[in-house]
Amino acid sequence: METRIRDVVSSLEINVDDVRMIGIKGMGGIGKTTLARAVFDQISFQFEGKSFVENVREESKPFLSGLKSLQKQVLSDILNDQGVTVSGVLDGKNKIKKTMRARKVLIVLDDVDNTNQLEALAGDPNWFKSGSRIIITSRDEQVLVAHRVSLIYNVNLLSDTEAICLFSRYAFGKEIPVQGYKELSEEVVEYAAGLPLTATVLGSLLCGQDESEWKDAIKRLQTIPLKATMEKLELSFDGLEDDHKEIFLDVACILKGWGKEDAIRVLESLGFRATYGLKVLEQKSQYNL
To answer: CB 3.0-4.6 Å disulfide test: which of 19, 51, 115, 222 passes with 77?
Structure first.
């Protein structure tokens, strides 16, 4: 995590006097929010105003009232004034522009999945005073590209070493497994498959449990998936178009491990627009042959 934090902070170049938007992209449960929060906590003292807007995807629903509420949150955070009023999305845009031009701000927009959300909350760099930084986390690279976010940091799955370290912090309170639990920890980390969310949840669940309880929990995971992980992955799957859901299932269940060109040929024989479909899945962090 420390390396990832340093990479993002370096990309922000806080001492450069420009307005910079950067994206943090990756699949659900991979640690985008955790990374953004760590960066925010580390650098926010260097700004005249700050706002961390969590879960934009869900909080922006219903569309107009949700966006208006998020605009009010940003303004309230930056001005440190809970009495801010926003009569509508257009009014919110105008107030954000007027407010942000007067102060250097740090804003994090977490879990964005639609350009409308960005247009309402951080429409254009010229809304902001020089020196401001806007960090946007998303599962969908195309949302970032469409908003002209030129610098996108891709959050990758944890290596085995990183996963053991993270899991152990939650299971044992230190960065290596305690004596007698090394092999069991490796089994759990193999199940987590590099997802930080899964590693941390399982570490917390197994903390303080004895060896027999660990073994029973590991056997349970072989037949009953971890709910926290499934909820994150289902959210991404549910947001796909119907034909892209079918492509995803074919890739996950049948074509896993195939070369890209071979997969495209098979999918096209089934009537799918495979080149575009695989690109969409890749941008939404749902596919990697």
So the answer is: 51
Nearest residue to 110 (alpha-carbon basis) of 82, 81, 73, 80: 73
Do 164 and 131 fall within a single domain? no
266: CB partners within 8 A, 6+ apart: 250, 255, 258
Our CA angle for 80, 83, 89, nearest 5°, is 95
Domain range for 106 is 2-154
Q: Quick one: which of 132, 208, 135, 194 has its CA closest to 163?
A: 194
Please tell me the chain's helix, strand, coil percentages from 3-state DSSP, rounded to the nearest 5: 55, 10, 35
What total number of domains does the chain contain? 3
34: in domain = yes
d(CA 274, CA 269): 9
Contacts of 236 (CB under 8 A, 6+ apart): 27, 28, 139, 284, 285, 286
**Residues of the chain where predicted confidence (pLDDT) is lower than 70:** 228-230, 232-237, 285-289
In this structure, how many other beta carbons lie within 10 angstroms of the beta carbon of residue 286? 24
